[in-house]
UniProtKB/TrEMBL annotation:
Keywords, sorted A to Z: Metal-binding, Oxidoreductase
Residue ranges of the TM segments: none
PANTHER family for this protein: BILIRUBIN OXIDASE, CUPREDOXIN SUPERFAMILY PROTEIN
Assembly and oligomerization: Monomer.
Protein name stated in the entry: Multicopper oxidase CueO
Catalytic reaction annotation: 4 Cu(+) + O2 + 4 H(+) = 4 Cu(2+) + 2 H2O
Similarity field: Belongs to the multicopper oxidase family.
Residue span, Plastocyanin-like domain: 57-170, 352-464
A Pfam family: Cu-oxidase_2
Length: 465
């Protein structure tokens, strides 16, 4: 079997169960959850902020008292958070001091093709490149990560990922929790040896990152919180692992946003699901717990009802709370009637061990679809991998889309927003509506289980005027 065909939830047959080489790491909840630093601009001009980032190897502490060498942006694991405002351009000068090529993609960003981090458009070791992000889109939790062809899975696994929080006045007006009460939770797994070495095993059928759960780069940490509302900007930055998050006491969370920004209205739910590359914007109200409580967040996306620790919230103090979660958030614009339908068939070819979209692997010289600027389309995405049940996550660059239905049924409320990545389960057909209305040129779409895209499960769009 080829690399990373399965995720934890699907490693059901004993035949396919992987033998993990990872050591049992730290005691759960023995380290405090860090918050990635917010990147400071190197310069500010009117309407524009300029940042410098250097991709380099760095030793970090993941397991307590051990050093792990990872690939970083500026030595930070995960990368520093970039904060941007709608209408204000962000310019990022990236310098590659790694010994491998890298291409930096702003996932979910509306950017011109030459700034999109196309897989063939890499920064060679020793070189620099400037990316321009105009931020002419709604407030959203975007993220930046490596996209160099064939290398992205390992590069992201080794650390090349960071959050990019774009805000706008519409969002700020809502009164959601902010400041120290708005925290990123970057979720992923890591296989760590006893001595702290990060093991990348691309042949692991469960995916290389099904090991220890890391939150913001530390294993199953704890987070001291006040007894009030918090807003968590959750991003799944793993290469292929799924998280279905539940509070162990079964109590409610409020999902207010998804990949491309805020939902039209809050969704009260017991389970928040983020597959590879998806984001969830979630408010948890700790005021229902007395000071001294410990509240556990679990991942339940594993086979056979197994759950895994993710994070423990320790309610340590009272605090004033003037935040709100309004019943109306941000309305969804109407994309208009679709004029074209396209189909995308996702499959794994057992005979050749290749991951295919419409029967083909990625060819940088081939264009697979030519959508017209401003013309809405319906895409039907089918996962035919039922013999070996392999889920796929479908992502297109440049635009957010809407999920119309899954096997003919309207999607769950939390998926009725602006999406740029979606899971397609084995045997499922998902219909989406998408309208490219910003830039023309060449972009990619692909499976975001990065071991799959690294094996060329990817295609190209040429957006035509
Ligand atoms: Cu998150 Cu093509 O990328
Ligand atoms: Cu896939």
């Amino acid at each position: 079997l080829a690399a990373g065909v399965l995720t934890a939830g699907f490693a059901s047959t004993p035949l396919l169960r992987a033998t993990s080489r990872a050591a049992a790491p730290a005691e759960p909840f023995s380290v405090r959850m860090p918050v990635p630093p917010v990147l400071r601009p190197a310069a500010r001009l009117p309407g524009c902020a300029i940042y410098h980032l250097t991709m380099r190897e760095a030793p970090v502490e993941i397991l307590p008292g051990r050093h792990t060498t990872v690939r970083t942006f500026d030595g930070s694991f995960p990368g520093p958070t970039i904060r941007a405002r709608r209408g204000e351009t962000v310019i990022v000068r990236q310098t590659n001091k790694l010994d491998v090529p890298a291409a930096v993609h702003l996932h979910g960003g509306h950017v011109e093709p030459q700034h999109d981090g196309h897989p063939m458009d890499v920064i060679a070791p020793g070189d620099s490149r400037t990316y321009v992000y105009p931020n002419r889109q709604r407030a959203a939790a975007l993220w930046y990560h490596d996209h160099a062809h064939h290398l992205e899975a390992e590069n992201v696994y080794r650390g090349l990922a960071g959050l990019y929080l774009l805000t706008d006045p519409e969002e700020e007006r809502l009164g959601l929790p902010r400041g120290e009460y708005e925290l990123p939770l970057l979720l992923r797994g890591a296989n760590l040896a006893e001595d702290g070495t990060l093991i990348y095993d691309a042949t692991d059928v469960q995916g290389p990152d099904h090991g220890t759960t890391l939150v913001n780069g530390r294993p199953t940490p704890y987070l001291p919180v006040a007894a009030r509302r918090y807003r968590f900007r959750i991003a799944n930055v793993s290469s292929g692992h799924a998280y279905v998050l539940k509070l162990r006491d079964g109590s409610e969370m409020i999902q207010i946003g998804t990949d491309g920004g805020l939902l039209p209205e809050p969704v009260r739910t017991g389970a928040v699901s983020v597959w590879s590359a998806e984001r969830a914007d979630v408010v948890i109200d700790f005021s229902r717990y007395p000071v001294g409580s410990r509240v556990y967040l679990d991942n339940t996306a594993l086979f056979g009802g197994e759950t895994r620790d993710v994070l423990r919230f320790d309610v340590v103090r009272e605090a004033r709370d003037d935040s709100r979660v309004p019943e109306r958030l941000v309305p969804l614009e109407d994309l208009g009637p679709a004029a074209t339908t396209r189909t995308f068939a996702l499959s794994f070819d057992l005979a050749t061990g290749r991951y295919l979209i419409n029967g083909a692997v990625f060819d940088p010289d081939r264009v697979d679809a030519r959508p017209r600027l401003g013309v809405p389309e319906i895409w039907e995405i089918t996962n035919s991998d039922t013999r070996i049940p392999i889920p796929h996550t479908f992502h297109t660059h440049l635009e957010q889309f809407r999920i119309l239905d899954r096997n003919g049924v309207a999607p769950p409320a939390a998926e009725r927003g602006r999406k740029d990545t979606l899971t397609v389960h084995p045997g499922e057909t998902v219909r989406i509506k998408v309208r490219f209305s910003t830039y023309t040129g060449r972009y990619v779409f692909h499976c975001h289980m990065l071991e799959h895209s690294a094996h060329a499960m990817m295609g190209q769009l040429q957006i035509e005027p």
